[in-house]
Amino acid sequence: MIKKYLLALLLLIMALENIQAQETRQIEIESAVVTNDEVTINGKRVPYKATAGTMPVWNDEGKPIASLFYTYYERSDVSDKANRPLVISFNGGPGSASIWMHLAYTGPYKLNIDDEGYPVQPYGYSKNTHSILDVADIVYIDPVNTGYSRIVDKDVSRSTFFGVNADIKYLADWVNTFVTRQNRWASPKYLIGESYGTTRVSGLVSQLQNSHWMYFNGVVLVSPTDLGLSRSGPVAAANYLPYYAATAWYHGVLTPELQGRDLDEILPEVEQYTLDVVLPAVARGGSLDKAKRNEIAKKMAYYSGMKEKVFIEHNLAVPTSFFWKELLREQGLTIGRLDSRYKGIDRSDAGDRYDFDPALTSWNHAFAPAFNMYAKNVLKYNTDLTYNLFGPVHPWDRGNDNTGEQLAGAMRQNPYLQVLTQSGYFDGGTDYFNAKFNMWQMDQNGKLQDRLSFKGYRSGHMMYLRAEDLKTSNDDIREFIKKTIPEKGTPAKY
């Protein structure tokens, strides 16, 4: 009889454990886990409260249709939240979680990597002495199906979330609720996005300003996309030459005359040549004189580290995918797309493009284990859900992307609003010269020049992975925040 009771008790315990396991594999629509910690930034102690949790996305009837995971860091020795800046942070993809900037850039912890950004073992994390938490509170948000965020209504259409404008609309509603719940309407506010996240925040600042009447002091664009600003044809072909030159300089394959000069001296020269010579030449197509074509191909080879015949064979328009395969082909190596400092090995040296992006595969090495440990051990957030570094968000509707113009429009409407662009010179996915092109197109009449700024770094897409640039780029954000908070009583007017 005792054995029978013991068996029944054991089965009951197993059943309860199974139910509990199933529950931890489901997202909680609303949750919050609070911890307290501190970090030393620029030699000063900064205590803070961290809230890791979830908050719903509602439909028009007030029914939860999704739940977003967020991590919110608040400096705990500051009582006056009205004057305390709030930074709202997104990564990109689309389909990427907020992990990248969260655990490697602006947050209070950073993952273990070497000084150039390569993964090291044992995997893990340490305090980030360059975090911007000394000057601003930060919330990192994972859009639907990224990180621990999930759809909770199986009947809702995927089009509600997965598209340029759908993404902006539901996230604006979510941010509005978050700011209201946290009582941060009076705070100076900033949006920061990386890669596709720049598309997201460019649209969000307009949506929040015009539909929720929430005004921002600044937007930070880290490695920006094209923001829906047209650059097809000759412009697209010509604009990559400065990036090619920077990368070739880094790998030491330029002529001794060029290689002996500093990058800051070379790039303005290449940029000028791109605008004044290459762009008009590509625009002329087959009507370009053969002798002139050969002359330009020779000069482009000189600046790029590739052979002259490569430019002749490609009609002066060498695709980036070919460049990543070609530049170090004779060494039997490829270079990375998102950070062309990284080198890879393909199955064959022949071909028109690499087998994989050496940069991205290297980063995944370090980020995935570090965040899973960090969430559990530091944030104390326990779940059996998989943290999606890259989540299922496709098909993604890229139609009607006017985000660059939306950002420019928000700037024209809001005299307080300023924009900082940060780019790595060795980023081949969202290159630095096209980031400058964005700024030119957003401000065609030149009236926003004093509110648009650009910073370049000697690294790639995630410039902050390089130790020297982690400090510099955070300092640049810190100074941007300080300079964009007007003196008390300053009216927002022209």
Reconstruct the topology from this structure.
Elements: H1 2-24, E1 31-41, E2 44-58, E3 64-75, E4 86-90, H2 99-102, E5 109-111, E6 125-127, E7 137-141, E8 150-151, H3 164-181, E9 189-194, H4 196-211, E10 218-222, H5 234-238, H6 241-250, H7 256-259, H8 263-284, H9 290-304, H10 308-313, H11 320-326, E11 334-335, E12 343-344, H12 358-377, H13 403-413, E13 418-424, H14 432-442, E14 452-457, H15 467-483
Parallel strand pairs: 4-7, 4-9, 9-10, 10-13, 13-14
Antiparallel strand pairs: 1-2, 2-3, 3-7, 3-8, 5-6, 11-12
Helix pairs in contact: 3-4, 4-13, 6-8, 8-9
Organism: Belliella kenyensis
Signal peptide: 1-21
Pfam family, one: Peptidase_S10
Question: What can you see in these coordinates?
Answer:
The protein has 494 residues and is of the alpha/beta class. It has two domains: 31-229 and 365-483, Alpha/Beta hydrolase fold, catalytic domain (Rossmann fold, 3-Layer(aba) Sandwich); 234-358, no CATH class. The chain contains 15 helices and 14 strands. Strands 1, 2, 3, 4, 7, 8, 9, 10, 13 and 14 form a ten-stranded mixed beta sheet that branches. Strand 2 and strand 3 (64-75) form a beta hairpin. Helix 3 packs across helix 4 (196-211), helix 4 (196-211) packs across helix 13 (403-413) and helix 8 (263-284) packs antiparallel against helix 9 (290-304). The protein is globular, with a radius of gyration of 25 Å. Mean pLDDT is 94; it is low at 6-23.
